[in-house]
Amino acid sequence: GCAKMNPKAIKYLGIKGEVEIVIAGKKKLRFKVLAWDKTPENEVWCNAEEMQMHGIADRTIATCRAPLKTGQ
After folding, report:
1. Which end of the chain is less packed: N or C, by CB atoms within 10 Å?
2. Are 18 and 67 in contact (CB under 8 A)?
3. Would you say residue 71 has pLDDT above 70?
4. What DSSP element (H or E) covers 34?
């Protein structure tokens, strides 16, 4: 899937192409990142239906980072 992020946040986090989203230190998901100015700097926007398929509720707090290793 895809995740929309503010370009400033993408630069600050050192994200290049993909973002890794970690929920409760257990569930890790990767998304192609799209820079979008209208996304607030402290938010990552993803498709709600896709998140529900992964068992993630709306407004879940998660850690977002550049992937630690490629291909994991």
Report:
1. C
2. yes
3. no
4. strand 27-35
CB neighbours (10 Å) of residue 7?
A: 13
Q: Retrieve residue 10's tokens.
A: 């993408």
- Take residue 21 and report the two structure tokens written for it: 């989203």
Would you tell me which CATH number, out of the four given (2.60.120.10, 3.40.50.620, 2.30.110.10, 2.40.40.20), belongs to the domain 2-65? 2.40.40.20
How many other CB atoms are there within 10 angstroms of residue 35's CB atom? Answer: 14
Q: Do 19 and 5 form a contact (C-beta atoms < 8 A)? A: yes
Rounded to whole angstroms, the Cα distance separating 36 from 39 reads 6
Write the pLDDT tens digit of every residue in 53-64: 998 988 888 999
